[in-house]
Automatic annotation (TrEMBL):
This is Class I SAM-dependent methyltransferase. InterPro entries: Methyltransf_25 (IPR041698), SAM-dependent_MTases_sf (IPR029063). Keywords: Methyltransferase, Transferase. One of its GO terms (molecular function) is methyltransferase activity. It comes from Thalassococcus profundi. It comes from the Bacteria. Pfam families: Methyltransf_25. The keyword S-adenosyl-L-methionine does not apply. PANTHER family: TRANS-ACONITATE 2-METHYLTRANSFERASE, TRANS-ACONITATE 2-METHYLTRANSFERASE-RELATED.
Length: 198
């Protein structure tokens, strides 16, 4: 279920978010994801925000679809050449064997915990066998709201790995780190890749 308060924050602060995050160069994780894609591969930025990652993917020659629950964020993402963006909730994903890669970078952490297994299963269906999923979430347990009012669901690495296996993925390496969010607070996070089982 889409959290309206979270979407409202992103609609209201989209330009601020873009200014803070979108001018950064592609990091090693994004570059590795792009390098793993076939030439002219098709990818989905699932929860794209203002489209920073989608922009880098398109510049690398990938065919990029991008979705987000925030209409304002989608408008910003659609401005990047080579990016096809539209507004959609997580549960609207109904593609079948359509993508070589799905980039879900700090997006699923806004979903209800009970809904995440279903979202991962939908991503698996959307990927071709052997396709690559990237996931980034905040590390921890439980749920909370930040000072801006955004809802977060926290995950441990073993928990996320188990969810991925149940959805038909083989989890790969994880990277841990910490950094500031839009509200300025520093949080621990992890990212990992997972391959869609044949």
């Amino acid at each position: 279920m889409t959290d309206r308060d979270t979407l409202r924050v992103y609609d209201d602060m989209a330009l601020t978010y873009q200014k803070v995050f979108s001018d950064k160069a592609a990091d090693a994780t994004l570059l590795a994801f792009i390098a793993a894609m076939p030439a002219d591969g098709r990818v989905l930025d699932f929860g794209c925000g203002p489209g920073r990652s989608a922009m880098h993917m398109a510049r690398a020659g990938l065919r990029v679809d991008a979705t987000d629950g925030s209409a304002t964020m989608v408008g910003l993402a659609a401005q990047h050449p080579g990016v096809t963006a539209w507004q959609a909730s997580f549960d609207a994903l109904d593609a079948v064997a359509q993508y070589d890669g799905v980039w879900a970078n700090f997006s699923l952490l806004h979903a209800d915990r009970a809904d995440v297994p279903g979202h991962l299963a939908a991503i698996r269906r959307a990927l071709v066998p052997g396709g690559l999923l990237h996931v980034g979430v905040k590390d921890g347990t439980g749920e909370s709201r930040d000072s801006l009012g955004r809802r977060y669901t926290y995950f441990t690495l073993p928990e996320m790995e188990a969810m991925l296996r149940a959805a038909g993925f083989s989890p790969g390496p994880a990277t841990r780190g910490e950094g500031p969010g839009l509200d300025g607070s520093v949080a621990s996070f992890f990212t990992l890749s997972a391959v869609a089982d044949a």
